[in-house]
Amino acid sequence: MEILKEGIGTLFGDPDPDHAREFFRKKSRKMEGKLMTVKEAVERFVHDGEYLASGGFGSNRISTVALHEILRQGRKNMGFAGHTTTHDFQILSAGKVFTRLDASYIVGLEARGLSNVARKYLEGGAVDITDWSNYGLAIRFKAAAMNVPFLPLRILMGTDTFKYSAARTITCPFTGDTYAAIPALYPDVAIIHVHEADIYGNARIKGITVADFDLSRASKRVIITAERIISNDEMRRDPAQTVIPFYLVDAVCEAPYGGYPSNVAYEYFSDEEHLQEWLKAEKDAETLKNFLDTNIYNCRNQFDYINLHGGIEKMMTLRKKELQYATREKAEGGKNNG
Amino acid sequence: MADYNTMELMICCAARELEDGASVGVGTGAPCAAAMLAQKTHAPNLLVAFEAGGMAPLLPQMPISVGDSSTYFRGIMATSMTEIMETCARGTIDYTFLGGAQIDMYGNLNSTQLGQDHNRPKVRFPGSGGANDFACFCWKMMVITPQDARRFTEKCDFITTPGWLEGGDSRLKAGLPKGCGPYKIITNMAVMDFEETSKRMRIISINPGYSVKDVQDNCGFELLLADKIIETTHPTDDELRILRDEVDPLRIVIGR
């Protein structure tokens, strides 16, 4: 097939379908218990130099519990998929975890502002950046999930986002039109926070799934952190709710409030005050170091971290904030005007 | 006539572009306020989609994130990003609102970086997010932005998101879907569209208190002028009341 134009960004990962099939052929599909601590999961399945992806949507349903552990264990030189990564990107930038980056949304925390530590990390030149759009990067997971080397899309073309991507343009064999060929991406490991999982790794996500359906299928290894562990009987009672089946999953970690300070739908709202503290702490190196020591490096786990920020009482406040729409709805007899 | 600030005027202008029964892909901030205002005034059946997966919520408040739980509160569907973008790709989403640090005369947007060295940018911004995708697929792309000469630039340091690219039929030639592209640029000083053939930005309406000269002085490239330039219609008392009391009671977007 003739290539018309070629992005100059580095193509991270190997899009070859047969290489991926060889890997998945050897991956266990035995339904066995995979319950372990987050510490053990990160030790066993997240390695220096490998390619990491983070589920959820930046400040929504991220696995903070696994991200902090990755910093504590000092992972370095990783590749990373910046698919709407906001607070997760901020954490990994603070730990200088990655040096290769597929970027579709990074550095910003949406309306909250830009992360100084993330900006400085990239502006320092230590990271090889390949740009994409959000859909483009989501489609890289989808192509991998489908085990095709690329998918043809009509995005990116004509822009510098294309120029600095690793996409290529091709001619459609049916219409003769030009399409961007978006290559498959198989991350080595994905960390995905979910609402419920059983000990085998069958997992339920409530609310939006963002790109996690395809990400879990594209990734060679998957670490699930779950608000709650539920029984396999319960899972089998309503199989339509299963978003991620056990045979994709390598580790299951029970992690109540494991997404804090992000928003986990129907569980708790984001802690906006603490996210602002993060942005403020990034103003200078000394403040940031103390902040990271306090909130990550000197914490044993997510429980220590949560206790620094009001513990269960605070979690209940955030839970109330998340669930208040429902109660207000009832109280005001169907109105919902803020 | 009530007092109002320029943000309120821009949101009202944007809301009026969204007719009942249309569909719009929005983010947080002013675009979301415009969509909510349209729903609460003339367009109760406006279909609102959020890129992270929220479809047609009854928004209880301004979302703080494009993926927070309010973006599918009492929604029609809580789904995935690919499902939302595929809905755009099929031609179902009429409008979108985008923004950036720079915009050029063809409506190309930069939200990626300042400076030319890609791996060592002078300033790094978030990048495309869903902007490139929305701009490629949604029929009419609009921008709500303050008007200043640094932002309205002759040449973007980086084109993150396609406008009309180099004008004329360059967008189509690049391979992007037919019939869609930049539509209106709404600023604190004016409303612009794009001339049909050259696809260059053109003043069609001036906001109260500003002149064509003000707009041109705060623009880094030469703007075209419509044959008839009108004065932008003031927000009505009803629009302002709904915007302030129901859409943004905490004054997060419209200010205090």
Notes on the structure:
The complex is a heterodimer of chains A (338) and B (256). With 338 residues, chain A is of the alpha/beta class. In chain A, 37% of the residues lie in helices and 18% in strands. Chain A has 13 helices and twelve strands. In chain A, strand 3, helix 5 and strand 4 form a beta-alpha-beta unit. In chain A, helix 6 packs across helix 8 and helix 12 packs across helix 13. Chain B is of the alpha/beta class. Chain B has one domain: Glutaconate Coenzyme A-transferase. Chain B contains seven helices and 14 strands. Chain B has an eight-stranded mixed beta sheet with strand order 2-1-5-10-11-12-13-14, sandwiched between helices. In chain B, strand 6 and strand 7 form a beta hairpin. In chain B, helix 1 packs across helix 2 and helix 2 packs across helix 7. The longest helix of chain B has 11 residues. At the A-B interface, helix 5, strand 4, helix 6, strand 7 and helix 8 of A face helix 3, strand 9, helix 4, helix 5 and helix 7 of B.
Keywords, separated by commas or semicolons:
heterodimer; A: alpha/beta; three-stranded antiparallel β-sheet; 13 helices; 18% strand; disordered C terminus; B: 256 residues; alpha/beta; Glutaconate Coenzyme A-transferase; eight-stranded mixed β-sheet; two-stranded antiparallel ribbon; 23% helix; 21% strand
Helix run count of chain B: 7
Identify the CATH homologous superfamily of chain A.
Glutaconate Coenzyme A-transferase
CATH class of chain B: Alpha Beta
Q: CATH superfamily membership of chain B, which one?
A: Glutaconate Coenzyme A-transferase
CATH topology of chain A: Glutaconate Coenzyme A-transferase
Q: List low-confidence stretches of chain A.
A: 329-338
Percent of residues in helices of chain B comes to 10-25%
Into which percent range does the helicity of residues of chain A fall?
Answer: 25-40%
User: What is the name of the CATH architecture of chain B?
Assistant: 3-Layer(aba) Sandwich
Overall morphology of chain A? globular
Number of helices of chain A: 13
Instruction: State the separation between the terminal residues of chain B, measured CA to CA.
Output: 19 Å
Helix/strand/pairing category of chain A: alpha/beta
Mean pLDDT of chain B: 96
* Number of beta strands of chain A: 12
Order of strands, widest sheet of chain B: 2-1-5-10-11-12-13-14
Under the CATH scheme, the architecture of chain A is: 3-Layer(aba) Sandwich
The tally of structural domains of chain B comes to 1
**Overall shape of chain B:** globular
CATH topology of chain B: Glutaconate Coenzyme A-transferase
